[in-house]
């Protein structure tokens, strides 16, 4: 058998894409909020098969599809019990009034 060896970046892309895809399939509105997706992105990711996701990851190579949070350093510096509430507050979209 021929087994493809994935790089660390490809493994991250594959894991996140499959997680997002599964989340979209189970609860689309929640997935959109959780992963900051718009409706078109959610629709497209939800329609992809596992084989399509794997092919995309293989062809994108070592280009990361998911940048880290802008507040990553701040979250790394806070005491661990505060990390979850701060992460939730800092990523909550602002409401337009």
What does this structure look like?
The chain has 97 residues and is mainly alpha-helical. The radius of gyration is 16 Å and the shape is globular.
Uncertain runs: 92-97
The shape is globular
The largest sheet is: none
Number of helices: 6
Structural class based on helices, strands and sheet pairing? mainly alpha
Distance between the termini: 58 Å
- Range of helix content: 55-70%
Strand content: under 5%
- What letter string, H or E per element, gives the SSE order? HHHHHH
For the secondary structure, the number of strands is 0
If you average the pLDDT, what whole number results? 88
Alpha carbon gyration radius: 16 Å
Topology:
Blueprint: H1 8-26, H2 28-35, H3 39-47, H4 50-60, H5 72-77, H6 80-91
Q: What key attributes describe this structure?
A:
disordered C terminus, 0% strand, 6 helices, 97 residues, mainly alpha
Brief summary of the model shown:
By secondary structure, the protein is mainly alpha-helical. The chain has helices at about 10-25, 30-35, 40-45, 50-60, 70-75, 80-90.
């Amino acid at each position: 058998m021929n087994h493809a060896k994935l790089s660390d970046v490809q493994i991250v892309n594959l894991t996140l894409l499959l997680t997002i895809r599964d989340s979209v399939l189970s609860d689309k509105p929640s997935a959109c909020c959780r992963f900051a997706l718009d409706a078109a992105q959610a629709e497209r990711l939800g329609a992809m098969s596992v084989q399509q996701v794997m092919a995309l990851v293989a062809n994108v190579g070592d280009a990361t599809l998911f940048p880290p949070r802008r507040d990553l350093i701040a979250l790394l510096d806070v005491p661990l019990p505060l990390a979850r509430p701060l992460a939730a507050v800092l990523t909550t979209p602002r409401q337009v009034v």
